[in-house]
Amino acid sequence: MKEKDARGKVSLARSRLEGERGAIRKDRGGRISVALVYPNYYRVGMSNLGFQAVYSLLNKRDDVVAERAFLPEDKETSLRPAAGRGLFTLESQSPLSVFDIIAFSISFENDYPNILTILEAGMIPLLERERDEFCPIIMAGGITSFMNPEPIALFFDLFLPGEAEANLDEFIERFIEIRGTGADRKETLERLEKAMTSVYVPSLFRVEYNEDGTIRSRLSSHKDSSPGKIISCPKSADPAVSRSAILTKDTEFADTVLIELGRGCGWSCRFCAAGYVYRPPRQHREQDVLECIDRALTESQHIGLLSASVLDVPGINDIFDHITERGGRFSVSSLRVNLLNEDALYRLKRSGQKSLAIAIEAGSERLRKVINKHLTNEQIINAVKITARVSDFSLKLYFIIGLPTETRDDVEEIVSLVKVIKHHMVKESRGRGTIGRIRLSVNCFIPKAFTPFQWFPMESVASLKEKQKWLKKAIEKEGGVTVSFDVAKWAYMQTLFSMGDRRVGSILMLGHQYRDDWSAAFRHSEINPDFFVLRPRGLDEVLPWDFIDHGIRKEYLKKEYMLALKGIESDICDVGKCDRCGVCHLGL
Ligand code: SF4
């Protein structure tokens, strides 16, 4: 039976490979082997441009072979140890345990429980301290590793925070060099940590706590490491244009080549981590983007253009035209409302885009000032009028509830604003006879490291659920508008995994032990998760992620926090002319 199961899994892997274009097959002999793991299902991982970019970067090197592995799905559960081999990679169907390195690419905190599932399925000891000489090096990169790696520190031998283009090559070279000297596992980790300022080996540091549970200090537990070493997050001044390396039908964006237009965002919304940890905002050169598009169009007709704010990209209408004139189609990620214009909308319509994703975030202008959104009601209404005149685009409107300083009035203003939006959509569409739908997606505020909102707590689950219930009733009364919500208790978990320190690792272990029964995990935990989720942090407190350096001054974040409390907006980024947060001073 086991053998039959294992054969079934191998044929599933092979059929996935057959459905792909662009997968790389290499012989492992003489090369450093990396099992690149996405801690979620194949379909989700293959939709992630960061994961695909790291796969390309690794395989570009002749001395590395990188193969992919994902969270096993129901049909793959026999890849667990019971099948005898453990979880294996897609390309060569080799068990994870035979690779030199198992590298996780982590984009979302809610995938943390999956890391433990994958390690277990790969027959790898969950805790770093339980691994022996024969175990691969277990490492992680991706945005959550450079916001706050501490909640998962117990499970990783090392983290490589920062943009992969800026430090992955150096890491591989150092790894080859150190391994070539016959260094054992422990020595390899110590030497890597010493050699690169962006390598973080959690086991070389211990954390001491105050009686009230806050952090007192971080100390080095290794003679050669400086106490409380600061881990720098290198950024590439001019990263190459990232694009999907592998095309498959089995993703969220079937057979679409995703192309990154730039990195970072200069609008500085105070809740948004990507707007801080990817600073400074950088746009790829138009010519580089066009060349990438030309190559992509030889593989697929459909291009997905990714940017935190697509309409900010210089020459964006020329890029749109370039694609359509060559017989391609494109779709875009989210659009800033105040930048919507007829020229761009007609191009989107011509390319077949039917719906627009628009992030309004807060119902009231007051709260939009608190979050530094730089968006007035008048700008929203103007954008809706223009949009409805051009076409019957459906609008997907994103809002956040539970934002700092939010009152009942702010929540009620979401409903008033949606009524006004609907009124103008109907009015402007009258001559045409068709009207786009309005869908609301309402998410809970989750505080994030390295933002000015890192000192705020999350609102209680009970209060958020009450707001969701009220909003649902009020919006549905409107008719013709639908609303969906995220799950408040999952927002609680995400906050715990985003804002926790090392002690949260023990809660993750319990969650794994109780097979994702988090109520049982919390009941058996000696750590109170509310301490990390619902407690406002003191401005002078040592935060779990303070040892990571993005070049952003903490004083700047404090200043932004104070401005938020006063409901005052600050300027958007002006790269080259500004030194407010400290990043551009680095000369990137
Ligand atoms: S220094 Fe100024 S322009 Fe540069 S990232 Fe910071 S806020 Fe933006």
Q: Can you walk through the features of this model?
A:
- With 588 residues, this protein is of the alpha/beta class.
- The chain has two domains: 2-162 and 164-232, no CATH class; 247-499 and 551-586, pyruvate-formate lyase- activating enzyme.
- It is 36% helix and 15% strand.
- The protein has helices spanning 2-18, 42-45, 49-60, 112-121, 164-180, 185-195, 274-277, 286-297, 316-325, 342-350, 365-370, 377-390, 408-429, 461-478, 488-499, 504-513, 518-524, 530-533, 554-566, and strands at 20-21, 32-38, 64-70, 101-105, 137-141, 158-159, 205-209, 215-220, 231-232, 247-248, 256-260, 262-263, 282-283, 302-306, 329-332, 355-361, 394-401, 438-444, 481-485, 548-549.
- It has a five-stranded parallel sheet with strand order 3-2-4-5-6. The protein has a four-stranded parallel sheet with strand order 16-17-18-19, with helices on one face. A three-stranded parallel sheet has the order 11-14-15, covered by helices on one side.
- β18 (438-444), α14 (461-478) and β19 form a beta-alpha-beta unit.
- Residues 266, 279-280, 573-575, 578-581, 583-584 line the site of iron/sulfur cluster.
- Iron/sulfur cluster is lined by residues 266, 279-280, 573-575, 578-581, 583-584.
